[in-house]
Design brief:
This protein is α/β, with parallel strands linked by helices. Helices cover 37% and strands 19% of the residues. The longest helix has 32 residues. The protein binds fe (ii) ion.
């Protein structure tokens, strides 16, 4: 269930990449013949494909080396960031696509221990990597400010969960706990691993909700970096239609509250002009606005979201943003108010993480509290969970529920 341990193992993934580069550089008759057949191309065309593949894989290897050097430079304590933690989930498109290809290959009944020099495997790898050359899926934009605006119940519950698309045992446990609370809506703040391919959207996301999620809830999903590594086709063309969601940004509002989901991944860790033009038309009136994004503004472990803050600066200056909830970092964190905004990270949806430790903080961030308890399902890692928002007219309660059905803490936002 979930991501294969071979694809989560950093040295194994790097070894696979290394062997692929060697085999491609050697490019014997078996490799080129099989690749041409699988791809339906001639040898001259294959030569260009092969060179591109080698270049992409070597660029990924160089990136890992640079990241490793940075981590060692900044801190000599073991890294805590999930990006370089024990489970290898790097924020790099080529590596994520290699991992997706490995998952597909490992799922084949005949290739449980696939031969990494197998020309057919190299063709699978090429097929997966060349999705990057297709470019991004089209971005569905609004026609008028009223588009993508929905009713938020004045009395009701909404579950927010992020970085949940692994299909692993924690994802199942979290979904079961969401089900136990029977929310009206479930919003996923993004990341279907490894690269949001249609296959991964089906297996690690839609099938998991169908098996374990609340049957009567309406589902929503934000776009995220892993979803975009394969161009966002799985997210825009499979996931959104399955949820009946028209776009990657939306506003759910009532008289008192407004939940605005924004796409911070179509342009990585940034917003784009169409949705910012739309946002301007959403913030009128007295309702308090809570933003939902995949990417963070603040993080103790990664570079802060300066581009997001620049786009939102006028609203932050006017005090028009009440709260901001994000994921991406695989932790549960309450930050001190920033520019008057309540800032929370809920990226602890299902990806295993090492419980955070203040000695390992790499970037300044004013943290009020964070989740440090171990997971009952995997005691060497942190506990997973979600946020349950309970609206009662002007009053909002936020409970951070864990994968065992307990509560990390509860706050009132009113
Ligand atoms: Fe992410």
């Amino acid at each position: 269930m979930g991501l294969h341990e071979e694809t989560l193992d950093k040295s194994n993934v790097l070894h696979v990449i290394d062997e692929a580069v060697s085999a491609l550089q050697k490019d014997d008759v078996a490799v080129s013949g099989s690749a041409c057949e699988a791809l339906g191309i001639g040898t001259a065309e294959w030569a260009a494909c092969r060179d591109q593949l080698i270049e992409d894989l070597q660029e990924a290897e160089d990136w890992v080396e640079r990241e490793d050097a940075i981590v060692q430079e900044v801190s000599d304590t073991p890294p805590v960031d999930s990006q370089d933690g024990p489970e290898f989930i790097p924020s790099h498109p080529t590596i994520a696509l290699v991992q997706s290809a490995m998952e597909e290959q490992l799922a084949e009944p005949t290739s449980r221990h696939f031969n990494r020099r197998d020309p057919k495997w190299l063709s699978v790898l090429y097929h997966r990597l060349r999705t990057r050359a297709r470019g991004k899926a089209p971005f569905p934009g609004h026609q008028q400010h009223e588009d993508f605006r929905f009713d938020l119940p004045e009395r009701g519950t909404i579950a927010l969960v992020s970085d949940w698309g692994t299909g692993n045992v924690h994802a199942a446990a979290v979904a079961q706990q969401i089900s136990a609370r029977n929310p009206d809506h479930v919003v996923h703040l993004g990341d279907v691993y490894y690269s949001g391919t249609p296959r991964e959207v089906q297996r690690n996301f839609l099938d998991m909700w169908r098996s374990y999620g609340p049957p009567h809830a309406r589902y929503w999903a934000l776009n995220a970096n892993h979803d975009m590594y394969s161009g966002g086709y799985g997210y825009f063309q499979h996931l959104l239609p399955a949820f009946g969601q028209p776009a990657s940004y939306f506003n759910m509002q009532n008289r008192f509250w407004r939940l605005v989901g924004l796409d911070s991944a179509y342009v990585n860790h940034n917003f784009n002009t169409p949705q910012m033009a739309w946002l301007e038309g959403q913030l009128a009136g007295d309702a308090r606005t809570v933003l939902l994004t995949h990417h963070h503004l603040l993080s103790p472990f990664r570079k802060r979201g300066n581009a997001l803050e620049e786009w939102l600066d006028p609203y932050l200056t006017d005090g028009r943003i009440y709260g901001w909830i994000w994921g991406h970092e695989h932790h549960l964190i309450e930050f001190a108010d920033y520019r008057g905004v309540k800032c929370r990270c809920i990226g602890h949806g299902s990806l295993p993480y090492v419980p955070p430790d203040r000695r390992r903080v790499r970037h300044p961030a004013d943290i009020v509290r964070w989740e440090t308890r171990p997971s009952p399902l995997q005691p060497s890692r942190g506990i997973h969970g979600f946020a349950l928002l309970t609206f009662d007219g002007p009053s909002l309660q936020v409970e951070y529920v864990d994968e065992a059905g307990g509560t990390a803490w509860t706050e009132r936002w009113d």
